[in-house]
Amino acid sequence: MAPGTPPEPAHPPEPAGERDMTGGRDPYGPPPPRPPAEPVGPPPSHSVLKSLLGAWALAACSPEETTHVEDHLTECAPCADEALKLRDAVGLLQADRNLDLPPLLRSRVLENCLDRRAARIPVPVWATPYDAETARLDALLRDFGDAEWHAPLQLKWFEKEEQAARRATVAGVIGHLMTVDGLVASALGLDDPLGDPSALSPTDRTEAFWRAAHPPPTRTIREPWRDQSHTLIRTVSFAGRGVAELSVSYGEFALPLRDAMIDRAFECWIHGVDIAEAVDYPYPAPSGPHLHVMIDLAAQLIPSALAARRRAGLASPARQLVVPGSPGRSLHLEVEGAGGGNWYIALDSPAAVGTAERAVAQVALDGVEFCQLVAGHISPEEAAAGQDGDREAIRDVLFAAASLSRL
């Protein structure tokens, strides 16, 4: 071979278009063996593997990281438990699932926002229970179908010495709430849903609405009820401080606007429970602070209710003549649980002051149980959990509390 002459190739080049793509092997023979996998390096530390669990749950690890993590999960029970929880959490992120948000989420978010930056026109403190309870009930109603709106239920309350009941539907109950809320709307100069601003009792207004509703209320009642509740909240928020003492007539009695809004929040919650039970759905109690103001209002109204029962001959007579503003006999009402506290109910006159020193009896009740008594959902005999002292005074106060209920 002469110097500078290129060596001949071991195999002559194949003509273009005729190259053997099998690498010289028999195309019909067995496939070549797979190359060995690249060796995985030493496993990272426990802290590094733990930090990768979130990415592993989201399937965002590299193949090598996935191998290390899954090997680690077979040996470390705490990490395996956390990985399982993370995988379950990832499942909740699927867009095709209908998430049932906590009913109080809106209130908590608003409260957090207002703590960081006050609203220009904040909702008055005494109106926030109504705002929260109407929002909770609306959240329950939002996904109801036609069948749920026509679900039957019983409205219960207490009359004189026994419970009374009235059959209704879910839509009929929302119409009832809207109609009685119209008492507050009329006091604020807003439109009355009945079209008649005359001061009728809540029962008369409800019966008038149901008689005039032909055909019976359907799911279309939700929108006007919710619009009315939004309008009430906006109106009292812009009205200023003096509006809290505006008188709201209930026909046979009147309440200051601040108390009327708490009363409407209480009834919205109680009927929310009625509706939820009719469709077999859970419905928790209001938040502790809101439940407390509802209980406080009821405790303030019991002496007047007791005096009315005495005038009707349904309660024992007063034992002492009390000068207005002076202390008289009292009953210690101890309400336990969220929203609870201690109240001293004047026994002989609504104008008397209840004090611990003059307490002749004590009753202990759970907060929700007390509210069910005030709503007429349970009888005084069922509500008497813990009692001590004057039995006659205890009976009178429990029956007076039940008599606060109405349709």
From TrEMBL:
<keyword id="KW-0804">Transcription</keyword>
<dbReference type="GO" id="GO:0046872">
    <property type="term" value="F:metal ion binding"/>
</dbReference>
<dbReference type="InterPro" id="IPR034660">
    <property type="entry name" value="DinB/YfiT-like"/>
</dbReference>
<dbReference type="InterPro" id="IPR041916">
    <property type="entry name" value="Anti_sigma_zinc_sf"/>
</dbReference>
<keyword id="KW-0805">Transcription regulation</keyword>
<feature type="domain" description="Mycothiol-dependent maleylpyruvate isomerase metal-binding">
    <location>
        <begin position="131"/>
        <end position="276"/>
    </location>
</feature>
<feature type="compositionally biased region" description="Pro residues">
    <location>
        <begin position="28"/>
        <end position="45"/>
    </location>
</feature>
<protein>
    <submittedName>
        <fullName>MDMPI N domain containing protein</fullName>
    </submittedName>
</protein>
<feature type="compositionally biased region" description="Pro residues">
    <location>
        <begin position="1"/>
        <end position="15"/>
    </location>
</feature>
<feature type="region of interest" description="Disordered">
    <location>
        <begin position="1"/>
        <end position="46"/>
    </location>
</feature>
<dbReference type="InterPro" id="IPR024344">
    <property type="entry name" value="MDMPI_metal-binding"/>
</dbReference>
<dbReference type="Pfam" id="PF11716">
    <property type="entry name" value="MDMPI_N"/>
</dbReference>
